[in-house]
Amino acid sequence: MADFNIRADVKTLLNITSTGDDAHIDLLIPQVTAQIESMLGRPYFLNGGDVTEYPRVRASQSHRLFLLRWPIEGVKPTSVHVSLDVPRVYDATTLLVKGEEYMIDPEEGVLVRIGAFWPQAINAIQVIYDGGITDQTTASKDLVRAGTIMIAAMLQKGKDRLYHATQERLGDAELRGVRFDDVPQTAREIIRAHREVAR
Questions:
Q1: Please, which pLDDT band fits residue 39 given cuts at 50, 70 and 90?
Q2: Given CB 3.0 to 4.6 Å as the disulfide criterion, which of 39, 47, 126, 142 pairs with 81?
Q3: In 7-93, at which residue ranges do the beta strands (DSSP E only) sit?
Q4: Cβ–Cβ contacts within 10 Å for residue 153, how many?
Q5: Is residue 31 over pLDDT 60?
Q6: For residue 198, what pLDDT is reported?
Q7: Which residues contact 108 (CB under 8 A, 6 or more apart)?
Q8: Residue 12: HSE in the Cβ half-sphere, 13 Å Cα cutoff
Q9: pTM for this structure?
Q10: DSSP letter at 10?
């Protein structure tokens, strides 16, 4: 996963000209990136490979299907399947044809069904795609600002050890972040506006 590259922004915000805090800032950046993704309720950066997702359909008789990682970099040609069989089958018999049975809105991260509705059954849809923000240059300026504000606040609190880093394991994954009550209100409001549920 990529991280927000915001060391220079943090130093500008706090008027830091020395390099004494650089290592501390660099240590906080991945924690804040993980926290922002957690608060967004969806992954934001590319994970370095194809994403296989079984997206949920939000409403009955819906032509629009939202993917978690957006904007979409690209959907594989043989990667959108609809299967109502039990157990599910994702092969040539369940493959949808791009341009005939669905189309992509890459900026919104939406697959639009043509001539039919997306099924609501669990795991009925499988999509394999590249999606998310590739690097800092394509990241939302608002979210960059939120990350900058969060790290600046953590640096200021860190002098007195007032912020709380968290770390826990979930299976083979390690989740890192900061406690929600340590996130400045301004940053919380910015992130809330970008939450996946608000789409």
A1: confident
A2: 126
A3: 51-53, 64-66, 72-82
A4: 22
A5: yes
A6: 39
A7: 66, 70, 71, 199
A8: 6
A9: 0.58
A10: H
